[in-house]
Amino acid sequence: MASSKSQKILDKPEARDKLRVAAARLFAEQGFSATGVQQITDAAGVNKAMLYYYFDNKDKLYEALINEGVWLIESSLSPAVVSKQDISDRLRSFLNSYLTLALDHPEIAAIIFREAFGGVEPGRRKVAEHIRKTIEQMAGMMEDAAAAGRIRADIDPLMAAYSLLGIANMFISRLIVSKAAFETGSLVENIMDLFMRGVEARKE
């Protein structure tokens, strides 16, 4: 157990934030395996004891960042899932939050994407479960819209969900790889126009 003196030295919340920010940048740039504890603590400007105090080890720090990313994305989708608005408004709300999230937290987005296309355990399982849940929730929204006559009944809800998320993810991928930023409002409107033209129920 730490002495009262060492406890005062370690118990500095700003050190935890410095570690989180430094680790997110390094994990995003180099991946989990290529990033060492010493690199993280050097970049954060703290000693190794701080990392072990707040996160136990590198694995737990990485897991904390993945959990943060998953929570942020699920929080951005939640209002659209429970909303009673028209499907176009619900999807527009989600896309706006989702894309803004990537702009505000590009390192977290990069970590989530890295895990989605390979990654390491247990992060890979966590992200895979998150993607499955997100797609199912979006597909449920599509089913609601089809039942209300807002989108075509012959549209596969899962295919529609994958398609919409895939379009958004292409722009996030460009942001991560090429640092190609985007203007969220106009991008959302363009995506929605393209998507709704394909799935919207046609008037007889």
Architecture overview:
By secondary structure, this protein is an all-alpha fold. The chain folds into 2 domains: 12-56, Arc Repressor Mutant, subunit A, CATH 1.10.10; 58-199, Orthogonal Bundle (Tetracycline Repressor, domain 2), CATH 1.10.357. The chain has 10 helices and no strands. It has helices at residues 4-10, 13-30, 37-44, 48-55, 58-82, 87-104, 106-116, 123-147, 157-178, 184-199. The chain is elongated. Mean pLDDT is 89; it is low at 1-10.
Short description, anyone?
This protein is an all-alpha fold and 204 residues long. The chain has 2 domains: 12-56, Homeodomain-like (Arc Repressor Mutant, subunit A, Orthogonal Bundle), CATH 1.10.10; 58-199, Tetracycline Repressor, domain 2, CATH 1.10.357.10. The protein contains 10 helices and no strands.
Quick tags:
77% helix, Arc Repressor Mutant, subunit A, elongated, 204 residues, 2 domains, disordered N terminus, single chain, Tetracycline Repressor, domain 2, 0% strand
CATH architecture of the largest domain: Orthogonal Bundle
CATH fold topology of the largest domain: Tetracycline Repressor, domain 2
Could you tell me the number of beta strands?
A: 0
Strand content: under 5%
Could you report the average pLDDT, rounded to the nearest whole number? 89
N to C succession of SSEs: HHHHHHHHHH
Overall radius of gyration: 20 Å
How many strands, which pairing sense, and closed or not: the largest β-sheet? none
Element layout with pairings:
Blueprint: H1 4-10, H2 13-30, H3 37-44, H4 48-55, H5 58-82, H6 87-104, H7 106-116, H8 123-147, H9 157-178, H10 184-199
Helix pairs in contact: 2-3, 2-7, 4-5, 5-6, 5-7, 5-8, 6-7, 6-9, 6-10, 7-9, 8-9
